[in-house]
Amino acid sequence: MNKPTLPYDIDTDSYQCPAGQHLDYLETRERRSSAGYESQVRIYEAEDCVGCGLREQCHKSKSNRRIEINAELQGY
Q1: Predicted structure pTM score
Q2: What sign does the dihedral 23-24-27-29 (CA atoms) show?
Q3: Do 10 and 49 form a contact (C-beta atoms < 8 A)?
């Protein structure tokens, strides 16, 4: 399943899901790959996915949609 590209709003630092809900910034976390590479990812989460008619097309999580954004990788 290919997930759709989510539009980013720089003014609110949030992404928008296909149903129009905002995925707001939660926190930044450190990640270390199996090769030992360290990176930072920004975590964004939707407020409430319960009852959304597009949920099955958007994600399979039992909770709200959450995405991790690595700004360095997006630059490439």
Answers
A1: 0.81
A2: positive
A3: no
Residue 20: alpha-carbon gap to chain centroid: 14
Going from N- to C-terminal start, the domains of the chain cover 8-75
Task: Give the separation between CA 1 and CA 25, rounded to whole angstroms.
Answer: 25
pLDDT tens-digit profile, the chain (76 residues): 445 588 999 999 999 998 999 999 999 999 998 999 899 999 999 999 988 888 888 888 888 999 999 888 777 6
5/74 Cα distance (integer angstroms): 12
**DSSP helix/strand/coil, 26:** strand
Cβ–Cβ under 8 Å, residues 47 and 64: yes
